[in-house]
Amino acid sequence: MYIISGTASKNIAEKLSKELNEPLAKTVIKRFPDNECYIRILDDLKGEEVVIVQTTYPDPNIVELLLIQNAVSEAKAGEITVVIPYFGYGRQDKKFEMGEAISAKAIATHIGLNADKIMLVDPHKNHILDFFNVSAQECSPIYEMAQCLNKLDVSLILAPDKGALERAKHTSKLTGCEYDYLEKKRIDAKTIEIKTKNLETKGKNVAILDDIISTGGTMAKAISELKKQGAKDVTAACTHGLFTGDAINKIISAGCNKIISTNTIQNKFSIVDVAPCIAKSIRKNIIK
Ligand code: R5P
């Protein structure tokens, strides 16, 4: 087996190579002066099982992945597995308004063309897996996240909306703490409203756990509501830390005590490593 790292996921691919004791393929990945991508794989992949690791965010990383897949397929590799730590465009997973593209489906269709198996870390919605025309599965880092929240002595894990409740519930089972959800209402693309219901948060060490932090709007609103109620410490935790614009300032100004994310998108808050959960899935489903 060879592991091939895209430039967006070097860190995870290197860790996977160590965990699985399988080599990283030697590659040349560069950009032409006009920024078009160039890919060359130096190892002979003929008949080899290949695991490609690449987050599909931001956009240039999608093209890079498609070219790596093409090079692998041209090299007549055996089974091709594509591991996508963060699958971009996942939030446009249906037509919310007439005439819209289903972006998640469009991207998945293209990636599925040169792959036998797909693994997504914590996709925004599970039905995204069905958009690939090959077998696709989820890889969940809740065990790794729970270990981290345990160290922070969190006593209540909150989902920022009802849709994110399962993640909070499973994580809380592993940490042995309470869980619940907040009521989130989207007013428009930039405005949301969060209600804390009648939750008992006074003096508690609370974590809000979401799949994505993008503008930080959801977290900031939730944190200030919880602080108003008297929560002691509030941790903002997510799988995929996009932190666009002034997200970090917004979250800190709202009273956040700690921000944590996984390394699906590497940033300064990436203290939870997803490589172990991906390695576990590969051992279970790929290595024969
Ligand atoms: C929404 O459905 C997602 O699960 C996240 O809650 C959302 O993407 C967070 O975005 P933002 O940080 O911009 O509020």
Low-confidence stretches: none
- Strand order, main sheet: write it out: 9-8-12-13-14-15
Oligomer: single chain
Find the structural class using helix and strand composition: alpha/beta
The share of residues in helices is 25-40%
Distance between the termini: 11 Å
Radius of gyration, CA atoms, in whole angstroms: 20 Å
Coarse shape: globular
Number of helices: 8
Compressed to H and E, one letter per element, the order equals EHEEEHEHEEHEHEEEEHEHEEH
Q: What hetero molecules are bound to the protein chains?
A: ribose-5-phosphate
Mean pLDDT: 96
Proportion in β-strands: 25-35%
Biggest β-sheet strands, sense, barrel:
6 strands, parallel
Q: How many beta strands in the DSSP annotation?
A: 15
List the helices and strands and how they pair.
Elements: E1 2-5, H1 10-20, E2 27-31, E3 37-41, E4 50-53, H2 60-74, E5 80-84, H3 103-112, E6 117-121, E7 135-139, H4 142-151, E8 156-159, H5 165-175, E9 178-181, E10 183-186, E11 192-195, E12 205-213, H6 217-228, E13 233-241, H7 247-253, E14 258-262, E15 270-272, H8 275-285
Parallel strand pairs: 1-4, 4-5, 5-6, 6-7, 8-9, 8-12, 12-13, 13-14, 14-15
Antiparallel strand pairs: 2-3, 10-11
Bound molecules: ribose-5-phosphate (R5P).
What does this 3D model show about the protein?
With 288 residues, the chain is an alpha/beta fold. Helices cover 30% and strands 26% of the residues. It contains eight helices and 15 strands. It has helices at residues 10-20, 60-74, 103-112, 142-151, 165-175, 217-228, 247-253, 275-285; strands at 2-5, 27-31, 37-41, 50-53, 80-84, 117-121, 135-139, 156-159, 178-181, 183-186, 192-195, 205-213, 233-241, 258-262, 270-272. The strands form four sheets. Strands 9-8-12-13-14-15 form a six-stranded parallel beta sheet, with helices on both faces. Strands 1-4-5-6-7 form a five-stranded parallel beta sheet, sandwiched between helices. The chain has a two-stranded antiparallel sheet with strand order 2-3. The protein is globular, with a radius of gyration of 20 Å. The model has no long low-confidence stretch (mean pLDDT 96). It binds ribose-5-phosphate. Ribose-5-phosphate (R5P) is lined by residues 91, 160, 164, 210-218.
